[in-house]
Amino acid sequence: MNMTPLIDVTFLLLTFFMLASHFASSEKVEMPLPRPDHNQAVDRKFRDRVVVNLIFTGPEQAPAMTFGLVPVASLDELSDRLGEIAPANPQIILRADRRLAYGEVRAVMELIAAHRLTKLQVVTELG
Amino acid sequence: MVENAPKTSEKRFTDRARSRSFAARYSRRRPSWAMTLNLTSMVDLVFLLLFFFLAATRFTRPEGMLPADLPGKQAAAASIEIPRTPISIRLAPAPGDAAGCRLTVDRFHPEPLALADLARALEKIRDEVPGFDGRTPVHLVAGDTVPWDNVVNVYNAALFAGFERIYFVGTRP
Q1: Helix (H) or strand (E) run with residue B56 in it
Q2: Tens of pLDDT along B120-146?
Q3: B145 contacts in A (CB within 8 Å)?
Q4: Residue B64 and residue A11: Cβ atoms within 8 Å?
Q5: A98 touching B, CB under 8 A?
Q6: Strand, coil or helix: A53
Q7: What is each CA distance from B13 to A103, B2, B7, B10, B19, in whole angstroms?
Q8: Gap between the Cα atoms of A53 and B5, Å rounded
Q9: Confidence (pTM)
Q10: Which among B145, B155, B157 has the least Cβ separation from residue A101?
Q11: Nearest to B91 by CA among B137, B154, B136, B166
Q12: Distant-in-sequence contacts of B126-129, Cβ < 8 A, 24+ apart
């Protein structure tokens, strides 16, 4: 029995799914995340989730935001988007640049709470 | 007249023998008994493995998540517990400070505390002060200009100390 094609196809499928999962994580914008001591954060996977990125653009400047893969221009627009997903109450994965001021992140957290989205995860760097 | 010159038939024989040995020596055709190694499948597999490991490697830094569940409407209404005195951790902006903020704990550490010592200080409060345990609410009161990195550090320290209810509280300038 010639096993070569079977192994070939298995590897090909494995590679395909690994690549597909990489593309799925492209909503994670590259940025320096907080690095706490004795980090209690764990790497988790959630089925029902929305990633909100807060990107540092410069001191004393409003951060750039993305809702999933979509760039968001203002807090009002973010509020609209959060309102759309509020009935499902998914996990909100908050990825905020560590150089941002707390006030900028708190404004977004208040928006999330205002829409009765209760499941929040704060993303940190591991290791 | 040359005496040693071969006869015509002899000359033909030696020519044929010479050409045969030349063919045997320099022929590109392999003899039937020679072993061959097919490298195609090996190269195929090597490339496949290379591609697999390239796809499997994570080039980004690993990330983790800190659960920071926000209070919902129902949670507040259903609460019938006796109110507990919260622990308030205050973070004030201090641009001149190396840490970028001034950290104090109301009633327990009114003098500034180093960020690295906070987890131990909170553990001590939880274990040694009567009426305080892991269910005691921890209020994280931070100024708007405090770096987010410090706020997350404090939140993480409270989690490390075994507190379950940590709330973000803001202060307006």
Answers
A1: helix B40-56
A2: 999 999 898 888 888 888 999 998 889
A3: 101-103
A4: no
A5: yes
A6: strand
A7: 104, 20, 10, 5, 10
A8: 99
A9: 0.72
A10: B145
A11: B154
A12: B126/B161, B126/B162, B126/B163
Measure Cα distances from B7 to B3, B11, B14, B19, B56 in Å. 10, 6, 11, 19, 78
Q: How many residues appear in chain B?
A: 173
Q: What residues of B are in contact with residue A125 (Cβ under 8 Å)?
A: 61-64
Interchain CB distance below 8 Å, B62 and A126: yes
Residue A66 CA, distance from chain mean position: 9
pLDDT digits (tens, 9 = 90+) for B87-120: 999 998 887 777 778 889 988 888 888 888 898 9
Gap between the terminal Cα atoms of chain A: 47
Chain A residues in contact with B68 by the CB 8 A cut-off are: 94, 120-122
Spell out which residues of chain A touch residue B156, defining contact as CB-CB under 8 Å: 36-41, 124
